[in-house]
Write a structure and sequence with these properties.
Length: 46
């Protein structure tokens, strides 16, 4: 394969797929860290 030839990734490995997975993982991490101070609180306290 020459360096100038184009190589297409399958849909599962597409750039948009990686962006969506990254955004999902980042959102999960942010949610976990923002929710941590409220662990164990009753519904009425929140």
């Amino acid at each position: 394969m020459s360096p100038n030839s184009s190589f297409r990734l399958p849909y599962a490995l597409d750039h948009k797929y990686f962006e969506r997975v990254y955004a999902g993982v980042l959102g999960k991490i942010i949610g976990v860290y923002l929710g941590r101070p409220f662990e164990g609180w009753e519904y009425e306290q929140i």
